[in-house]
Automatic annotation (TrEMBL):
Keywords: Hydrolase. The keyword Cytoplasm does not apply. Residues 19-169 form the Isochorismatase-like domain. It comes from Streptomyces pratensis (strain ATCC 33331 / IAF-45CD). This is Isochorismatase hydrolase. The keyword Cell membrane does not apply. InterPro entries: Hydrolase_YcaC-like (IPR053152), Isochorismatase-like_dom (IPR000868), Isochorismatase-like_sf (IPR036380).
């Protein structure tokens, strides 16, 4: 199990320490996704991927048996059009040396995982990587299982192994950390507007109010 801090400021995510692995967001996996509304998982994983791109967080895409399970969903592939997903035969992503080597090449130890299905293709690599010294975070709302119970039991099992469950907006919020960070503010806002649900609506409203206030001051 990772010996990294589980509390205090050092336990929070930073872009500089993070690496993301997105596992098997493919048609076959979505066909038996019953723990979540599939469109929400699509929205959330694309939001997570776009946030990773805003913050220059290395992101590894991977599929399993692509010829049978289908290509990575278009919305996700479109975020990284130049990247060809690593196509595996291993059920456990962490047993594929290409994936592990890609993660280790970044030199980063805060490993953020999302995938389908939670109970198999997420839990296996998360538990193994946690045992190998990585500080592992699983994005639960960008993942999903064959049933609600399967998803929930997988999350419980991973927590017992030292894995941290988190949601995609929490990841993005920890990366941004301070709204005075102007470099990433526009990109982060755009991601929230398009993928943040009610949060995006609130951001749009706030933008409207600020624009109205500035207009009033100018007149």
């Amino acid at each position: 199990m990772s010996s990294e801090a589980k509390s205090g400021l050092q336990a929070l995510l930073t872009p500089e320490e993070s690496v993301v692995v997105l596992i098997d967001h493919q048609p076959f996996q979505f066909a038996n996704l019953n723990s979540h509304e599939p469109t929400m998982v699509v929205n959330n994983v694309v939001g997570l991927a776009r946030a990773a791109k805003v913050f220059d967080v290395p992101t590894v895409l991977t599929t399993v048996l692509e010829e049978r399970g289908g290509y990575l969903i278009k919305g996700l592939q479109d975020v990284f059009p130049e990247q060809k997903p690593i196509d595996r035969t291993f059920i456990n992503t962490w047993e594929d040396e290409r994936v592990v080597d890609a993660v280790k090449a970044t030199g980063r130890k805060k490993l953020i995982i999302a995938g389908l299905w939670t109970e198999i293709c997420v839990a296996m690599p998360a538990i193994q990587a946690a045992g190998e010294g990585f500080e592992v975070f699983v994005v639960t709302d960008a993942s999903g299982g064959a049933s609600k119970e399967a998803h929930e039991m997988a999350v419980r099992r991973m927590v017992q192994a030292g894995v941290v469950p988190i949601t995609w907006q929490a990841v993005a919020g920890e990366w941004q950390r301070d709204w005075a960070r102007e470099k990433t503010y526009p990109g982060m806002t755009e991601v929230l507007l398009q993928h943040g649900g009610a949060t995006g609506v609130a951001f749009g409203w706030e933008t409207q109010l600020l624009a109205s206030a500035r207009s009033g001051e100018a007149s």
